[in-house]
């Protein structure tokens, strides 16, 4: 099969991807193309499978009526950056790497909480033998609300239970989920999380979550919680977040995803000592490429055998 390989964002090194894929035993008989090559139109038209993303080539291939593209292996869980309407309309299938992010993101979230509660972030900024003025907090007996009870949210909840935390989960229907003490539906969530000490967003960006965390949401919170976002930046109205921090509706924020990205250096968020920002790296770890490639290899092998995508096929709504 003809396979196009692209680095979806700057966190991925295409040369490293190329070296690993050219040596992978499951790909030896495939014809690999890479987005840094000067590919002809005939070569682009011949692509059967895409792994990763390229903001110019992938939409161009999908839009071309002469393409023979059969499926796409995303290297992320979120797929909102793909032209999904066109992919669905053309009957192109997709798979994600869902599952491999759970551990690194959960560990990052735990670090974010401890960084704020134990004043580690502030002490790093002070850079002298000086105790921060803010109180030192512990997690025991706190209430943490997690938006999203999938693999990422569940792993976060599991880790937090070790600290004797009361964990509330928010999902679409309010169905029960392992490691959560209570769960509520999105429509009931504001009342359910009003007294939370920490609020974590791990949801993908879909119409129901777009700009969900806004002025109306923040204004109903009663305990000045820590707000953490490891989901998508578009779920938060950034100006409303800034106002909520300035008005002390939130005690602090730790943010791995922003809107827009890259996030402007002139934003007041960078100057707030109660705000931690990382450049969308919570999911990264040293074995990311290998684990993603194993998912792709399994899907490719199964697809060539019987036309199925064995791992994490996206089920588009009809």
Automatic annotation (TrEMBL):
This is NAD(P)-dependent oxidoreductase. It comes from the Bacteria. Keywords: NAD, Oxidoreductase. PANTHER family: 2-HACID_DH_C DOMAIN-CONTAINING PROTEIN (PTHR43333), D-ISOMER SPECIFIC 2-HYDROXYACID DEHYDROGENASE NAD-BINDING DOMAIN-CONTAINING PROTEIN (PTHR43333:SF1). The keyword Transmembrane helix does not apply. Pfam families: 2-Hacid_dh_C. Residues 113-282 form the D-isomer specific 2-hydroxyacid dehydrogenase NAD-binding domain.
């Amino acid at each position: 099969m003809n396979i196009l390989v692209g680095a979806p964002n700057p966190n991925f090194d295409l040369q490293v991807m190329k070296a690993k894929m050219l040596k992978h035993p499951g790909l030896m008989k495939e014809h690999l193309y890479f987005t840094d090559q000067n590919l002809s139109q005939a070569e682009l038209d011949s692509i059967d499978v895409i792994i990763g993303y390229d903001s110019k080539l992938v939409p161009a291939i999908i839009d071309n009526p002469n393409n023979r593209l059969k499926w796409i292996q995303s290297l992320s869980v979120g797929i909102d950056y793909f032209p999904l309407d066109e992919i669905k309309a053309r009957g192109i299938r997709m798979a994600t790497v869902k599952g491999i992010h759970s551990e690194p993101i959960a560990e990052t979230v735990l670090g974010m909480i401890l960084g704020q509660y134990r004043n580690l972030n502030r002490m790093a900024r002070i850079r002298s033998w000086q105790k921060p003025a803010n109180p030192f907090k512990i997690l025991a007996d706190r209430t943490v609300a997690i938006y999203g009870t999938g693999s990422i949210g569940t792993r976060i909840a599991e880790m937090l239970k070790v600290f004797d935390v009361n964990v509330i989960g928010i999902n679409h229907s309010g169905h029960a989920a392992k490691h959560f003490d209570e769960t509520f539906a999105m429509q009931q969530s504001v009342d359910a999380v009003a007294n939370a000490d920490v609020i974590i967003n791990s949801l993908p960006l879909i119409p129901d979550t777009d700009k969900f965390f806004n002025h109306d949401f923040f204004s109903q919170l009663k305990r000045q919680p820590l707000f953490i976002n490891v989901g998508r930046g578009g779920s938060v109205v950034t100006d409303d977040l800034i106002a909520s921090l300035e008005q002390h509706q939130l005690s602090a924020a730790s943010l791995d995803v922003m809107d827009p990205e890259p996030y402007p250096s002139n934003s007041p968020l960078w100057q707030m000592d109660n705000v931690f920002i990382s450049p969308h790296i919570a999911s990264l770890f040293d074995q990311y490429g290998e684990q993603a490639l194993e998912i792709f290899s399994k899907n490719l092998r199964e697809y060539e055998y019987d036309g199925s995508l064995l791992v994490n096929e996206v089920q588009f709504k009809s």
